[in-house]
């Protein structure tokens, strides 16, 4: 008969015991949550740039103990300064487990392996979909407020967000110029994107939607030129393109388009994630819209 090493048996038993305890704790926490007996989470970890920013805006001091490393990138994050004093993570299950979180928040596109493993270890993980419209943006803010037991803070953020949009709507005329977002490798934003929703809120028609494109899609430079958009929103690399993907920004056809269109510049940090800071993207596009209408009137 084959003999099994006693130490190997001991390690296997310990591992099984830990997993069973984790499952039991997970089940207990789920039952307590259902009865409303669980206190607000005290050790929250975010694994996603967008949940980073929502949590940074809503969490009470000390409640958020780690954010993703992208939260400190000023090009991608509207709250890079606020994130600078919070430890970062790289989305690995091992490092997050060692932080002993009582709540992990992530995006639906966050690494599935890490999320699955964390849940097996009994850690509560809540996922947020990307905000590809303003309604989902609002839903995500409210949900974050509920998860962190900070509903009043979330509602205050949304009230400020809606006031800013309402101020623009009240100042808006009925004219809706066409804007063409244009990125590296000749991509644009079509229907079903946050950029499309932001453009509409700023009183603009998105060329991608008009061409019946959906999501992030290719827009050949020839089609862009023939469409004659009133405004063009260029990707942030247009002025210093070095990679092959950015060669489109140097093309003579694009320079010709820009001679007849108004340039609209919106930093990526206001558009990558749908947060209350997205109001700034709407304001910048509204200002570009106003500049275009003034130029057209003066001609």
What does this structure look like?
This protein is α/β, with parallel strands linked by helices and 299 residues long. It folds into two domains: 40-160, Rossmann fold (3-Layer(aba) Sandwich); 174-298, 3-Layer(aba) Sandwich (Rossmann fold), CATH 3.40.50.1980. The chain is 47% helix and 13% strand. It is built from twelve helices and eleven strands. The chain has helices at residues 6-35, 49-58, 80-83, 93-98, 112-120, 134-147, 151-170, 194-201, 207-210, 221-227, 252-260, 278-298; strands at residues 44-46, 64-68, 88-89, 103-107, 125-128, 178-182, 187-189, 205-206, 216-218, 231-234, 262-264. A five-stranded parallel beta sheet has the order 3-2-1-4-5, with helices on both faces. The longest helix is centred in the N-terminal third of the chain and has 30 residues, at 6-35. It is globular, with a radius of gyration of 24 Å. The termini are far apart. The model is unreliable at 10-37 (pLDDT under 50).
Outline the fold blueprint.
Elements: H1 6-35, E1 44-46, H2 49-58, E2 64-68, H3 80-83, E3 88-89, H4 93-98, E4 103-107, H5 112-120, E5 125-128, H6 134-147, H7 151-170, E6 178-182, E7 187-189, H8 194-201, E8 205-206, H9 207-210, E9 216-218, H10 221-227, E10 231-234, H11 252-260, E11 262-264, H12 278-298
Parallel strand pairs: 1-2, 1-4, 2-3, 4-5, 6-8, 6-10, 10-11
Antiparallel strand pairs: 7-9
Helix pairs in contact: 2-6, 6-7, 7-12, 10-11
């Amino acid at each position: 008969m084959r003999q099994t090493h006693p130490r190997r048996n001991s390690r296997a038993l310990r591992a099984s015991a830990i997993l069973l305890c984790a499952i039991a704790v997970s089940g207990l926490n789920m039952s307590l949550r259902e009865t409303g007996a669980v206190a607000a989470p005290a050790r929250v970890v975010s694994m996603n740039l967008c949940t980073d920013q929502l949590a940074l805006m809503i969490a009470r001091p000390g409640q958020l103990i780690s954010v993703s490393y992208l939260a400190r990138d000023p090009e991608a994050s509207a709250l890079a300064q606020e994130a600078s004093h919070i430890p970062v993570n790289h989305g690995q299950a091992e490092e997050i487990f060692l932080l002993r979180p009582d709540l992990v928040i992530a995006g639906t596109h966050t690494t599935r392996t890490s999320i699955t493993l964390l849940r097996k270890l009994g850690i509560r993980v809540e996922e947020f979909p990307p905000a590809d419209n303003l309604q989902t943006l609002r839903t995500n803010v409210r949900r974050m407020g509920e998860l962190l037991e900070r509903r009043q803070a979330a509602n205050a953020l949304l009230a400020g967000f809606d006031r800013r949009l309402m101020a623009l709507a009240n100042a808006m005329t009925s004219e809706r110029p066409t804007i063409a977002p244009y990125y590296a490798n000749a991509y644009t934003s079509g229907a079903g994107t946050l950029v499309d929703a932001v453009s509409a809120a700023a009183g603009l028609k998105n060329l991608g939607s008009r061409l019946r494109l959906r999501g992030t899609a290719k827009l050949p430079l020839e089609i862009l030129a023939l469409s004659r958009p009133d405004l063009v929103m260029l990707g942030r690399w247009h002025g210093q393109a070095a990679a092959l993907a950015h060669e489109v920004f140097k093309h003579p056809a694009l320079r010709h388009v820009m001679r007849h269109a108004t340039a609209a510049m919106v930093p990526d940090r206001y558009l990558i994630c749908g947060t209350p800071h997205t109001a700034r993207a709407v304001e910048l596009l509204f200002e570009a819209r106003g500049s275009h209408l003034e130029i057209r009137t003066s001609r």
